[in-house]
Amino acid sequence: MEMIWIDGVTYMNYGDEWMAFSSDDDMIDPWGYAPDDMVTDDSQRIGTETVNGYRSVHYRATGMGLALAGELRQADYWVSTEYDVVVRGIVQWISTVGDESGEWNMQWDVTDINEPITITAPEGVDKPGLPDDVPLMPGASNVSSMMGFTNFEIDATAAEVTEFYMQALEDNGWTFESSMIETMHSFSKEGRSLTLMIDDESTPTTVTIMIGEG
Hints:
Helices cover 8% and strands 49% of the residues. By secondary structure, the protein is mainly beta. It has helices at 35-38, 158-171; strands spanning 2-6, 9-13, 18-22, 44-51, 54-61, 71-80, 86-97, 100-109, 141-146, 149-154, 175-181, 184-189, 192-199, 205-213. It is built from two helices and 14 strands; from the N terminus they run E-E-E-H-E-E-E-E-E-E-E-H-E-E-E-E. The relative contact order is 0.12. The longest helix has 14 residues, at 158-171. The mean pLDDT is 85. The strands form two sheets. Strands 1-2-3-9-10-14-13-12-11 form a nine-stranded antiparallel sheet, covered by helices on one side. The chain has a five-stranded antiparallel sheet with strand order 4-5-6-7-8, with no helix packed on it. The protein has two domains: 30-109, no CATH class; 141-213, Kinase associated domain 1, KA1 (TATA-Binding Protein).
């Protein structure tokens, strides 16, 4: 898994596809780097080692109550003596679902502390939101985008969302095509298609806009 935060936008990749969504500053949680979150009173001190270029104390826990779906086997953490930051963590646990079980291993590393770094967005991934000719409804929140889909929440009724986009899309050159149901409408423009879907049974209302070719 790879995550990049830039100016309120989170880019996330699980290996095959990048997605982008808006994020608040408090989403950048230091979990995994603060020793108090990882090292408990029953952790065993193994020794002092250099990890990722930082002199660190190695701790091991076998009974820590982590929020993992299974039985914790072992957790090792290396805490920088200079910065008091976990620079490496390795967690091993066993997960059982029904008659099936599996062993899991997770490792993360901190390689640079207080060093200059240039963070760039992944190539070919648009920021969350909509193209210039599809306005975002005022008051929208929790905007996320992935593979041609944009989702957001809004404190408005389905009728209010429909009224806004009927006018806004017409003003931006889109042609209304049809309404399959009262909360699903289709539009077209210069070889592109747009589908507006509104879930007014949720609170707040959830809106999905899908834009594609043809």
